[in-house]
Amino acid sequence: MAVILTPTKTAAINPLKLSQPLGAALAFLGVDGALPILHGSQGCSSFALVLLVRHFKHMVPLQTTAMDQIATVVGGADFLEKALVKLKARTWPRLIGICTTAVAETRDEDIAGDIINAKGARPRKLIDTEVVLARTPDFAGAMEEGWSKAVTAMIEAITLPGTQDRDPAKVVILPGSNMTVADVEHLRETVESFGLTPLILPDVSGGPDEAVRDRWIPIARGGAKVEHIRDLGAATQCIAVGEQMRRPAEALQGLTGLPYVMFGSLTGLINADRFAWLLAAISHDNTPAAVRRGRMQLQEAMLSGHFHFAGKKVAIACEPDQLLQFAQLFIGMGAVITAAVTTTGDSKVLQIVPTDTVKVGDLGDLEQLAADADLLVTHSHGRQAAERLAVPLMRVGFPVFDRIGSQHKLSILYRGTRDIIFEVANIVQATYDEPPARAPPELVS
């Protein structure tokens, strides 16, 4: 069991974590027709919007209630009501996701009551639009906790309660915030290959299509349908990926009685095997040939890649679930985790990370602990530390803004694990493995 080391500094030197409102906003963007609103000052949403745009490389729909100094003191109920009415009239979203920030939360406002009053005062103005509140103050938690709270709030506000007739072909998938667009797409394709229908919440795979539209549409397009969220209880099984999704899975089970299965990660041979066995059991069918072929390709990649992994010292700085995902893979391939840094100490998954200690800290802590590392694994803000240490950087997580195509990198199941092994092996080979020495010209006959 890993020992969790709490922060000892009064300020972050090079911040690693991102805020809860950002994670919640990203989760709401995984719903078709959704519009996330940050309830706070304009600067809060501007910072989040910059990170989202730099990461996804296209415009992202995100709004704010734009609370000013007076509203910060006396309350922001009027600002929230005006934002709901104006944005509804302008964009006609199917769902408005309210993500609270520290500006609103420090006053301990009754924001849920403010939303009820706004809907009661303007019933016609907000018709046919779900308004969901996620309490996500900046001063607590991190990105994956905001994601988890937003998904839980959507289930509790929209999903129909009570036991429903189960459809044996439908499976609810609750992916964590560390899954990319490619991961979600591959997850859907894999479930469908077993003859099942996946209901994915949130489904971020629809977002990149916005870049090629002929006009800007200021709400999320693609992703989970509100109608499908309403009928999640009609599925036969729920699969939650990541400890962060335990809370939404429990909320769904409490509302509808739908049983759930937890996966700490879908990366690695054992985790992918468990997932394939579960789908085969649900579908009562054999594993498709394409999935079996992917398993054989992963085994070959593991045989070829372990020469480059064995004994290499790796330093990782990620959100808790992603930390477990990559730490398990590197340990399984024979590498050594010399530093593990994460954003929050509240996640129970940190206790099973395969390393002696996990430091809750920032990228400054990573740089200190990774002095003898052969590889750094974190997001793009770790590039300066990698340069100073003269160590190669593998970019994972959010944000990745200095590379193109990060959202289309696969990291789960057989194919994704294979691709990660190839990526790491190529980084190590290009950095540390010297080409064979050539014979002097006079010795060449």
Automatic annotation (TrEMBL):
<comment type="similarity">
    <text>Belongs to the NifD/NifK/NifE/NifN family.</text>
</comment>
<comment type="function">
    <text>This protein may play a role in the biosynthesis of the prosthetic group of nitrogenase (FeMo cofactor).</text>
</comment>
<dbReference type="Pfam" id="PF00148">
    <property type="entry name" value="Oxidored_nitro"/>
</dbReference>
<dbReference type="GO" id="GO:0016163">
    <property type="term" value="F:nitrogenase activity"/>
</dbReference>
<feature type="domain" description="Nitrogenase/oxidoreductase component 1">
    <location>
        <begin position="19"/>
        <end position="428"/>
    </location>
</feature>
<comment type="pathway">
    <text>Cofactor biosynthesis; Fe-Mo cofactor biosynthesis.</text>
</comment>
<dbReference type="InterPro" id="IPR000318">
    <property type="entry name" value="Nase_comp1_CS"/>
</dbReference>
<protein>
    <recommendedName>
        <fullName>Nitrogenase iron-molybdenum cofactor biosynthesis protein NifN</fullName>
    </recommendedName>
</protein>
<dbReference type="InterPro" id="IPR000510">
    <property type="entry name" value="Nase/OxRdtase_comp1"/>
</dbReference>
<dbReference type="GO" id="GO:0065003">
    <property type="term" value="P:protein-containing complex assembly"/>
</dbReference>
<dbReference type="InterPro" id="IPR050152">
    <property type="entry name" value="ChlB/BchB/BchZ"/>
</dbReference>
<keyword id="KW-0535">Nitrogen fixation</keyword>
<keyword id="KW-0614">Plasmid</keyword>
<dbReference type="InterPro" id="IPR005975">
    <property type="entry name" value="Nase_Mo-Fe_CF"/>
</dbReference>
